[in-house]
Design a protein that fits this description.
By secondary structure, this protein is of the alpha/beta class. It is 31% helix and 21% strand.
Length: 281
């Protein structure tokens, strides 16, 4: 990966292919729910089946958490889903906002937007919409949203600081976010860090947890916390596509971790200025 545009092109192509597949087909790929493994289990995604508003046709198994679990969504809220895919988290959010609220999904892959809109047409929701756009340049006005959710998407964004700044811009003062994502604790081996497939699979694009949290705080968010944190284990038959046997052993012994986290943060009700509080004397 050399440039932001090359990364975006890779992600669009990969997720464009995924949009044409079923969840079962995605489970047999290196990106998403399953792995290139004969073992039938998920690597990153969590089970939505008991979640209110869950729509199986909208679940492609591409997430790494359930961000609505900690999103404190209320009836009547306006919710924004970043990287909305086929609509899975958007439809769960819709069950929480009810008929008086609104849900907006944004995705940069046109075929995902088409799939989500078809799912929404089938469901007949008139307060859910899907917009084509990039997270670094959201097609939404400032201070328009009560809650932001996102599921295993921000790690794919080349300019994460710009993404965090856009999240801050579109949230109303007093609004908040809950995003699930893949982060690192320690360094990835070079073979994983540089592999295009592992970037599209949400691993190579991940950054250190503390850098991730620092970027969020630098954008202006307050009360940032990590209510959920779980290690991700990639099976050896996937690792062997990128690492030698010796490198796999060294990686496992290093203590370095690929981790799924859910991060929560709030936009302050009153934004700081250069002459507020004690910042001027």
């Amino acid at each position: 990966m050399n440039t932001a545009e090359e990364i975006k092109t890779l992600v669009r192509e990969k997720y464009g292919q995924i949009a044409e597949q079923s969840r079962e087909e995605n489970a047999a790929s290196c990106c998403g729910a399953g792995g290139c493994s004969t073992v039938d289990y998920t690597i990153m995604s969590e089970d939505y089946s008991a979640t209110d508003g869950y729509v199986p046709d909208a679940d492609l198994g591409l997430g790494c958490g359930i961000p609505t679990e900690f999103a404190q969504i209320k009836k009547g809220d306006v919710v924004l889903d970043l990287g909305s895919g086929a609509g899975n988290d958007a439809f769960v959010a819709r069950a929480l906002v009810g008929t008086s609220g609104k849900v907006i999904g944004v995705d940069m892959t046109a075929s995902m937007i088409d799939k989500a809109r078809k799912n929404n047409d089938t469901l007949g929701f008139n307060n859910v919409e899907f917009r084509l756009g990039e997270i670094e340049h959201l097609p939404i006005g400032g201070s328009m949203v009560d809650v932001i959710v996102s599921n295993c998407v921000l790690n794919l964004v080349p300019n994460k600081n710009q993404a965090f700044a856009e999240m801050f811009r579109v949230l109303k003062p007093g609004g908040h976010f809950s995003v699930s994502d893949i982060v690192l604790k320690g360094e990835l081996p070079d073979g994983l860090r540089t592999a295009a497939e592992m970037y599209a699979g949400c691993v190579a694009g991940a950054i250190q947890l503390e850098d991730y949290l620092d970027g969020i705080r630098a954008a202006g968010f307050a009360n940032v916390s990590v209510p959920k944190d779980r290690a991700i284990t990639i099976p050896d038959d996937i690792l062997s596509n990128y690492l030698s046997s010796e490198e796999i052993v060294a990686f496992k012994q290093s203590g370095n971790q690929i981790t799924s986290v859910t991060v929560y943060g709030e936009k302050p009700t009153v934004e700081k200025s250069c002459c507020s509080g004690d910042c001027c004397s």
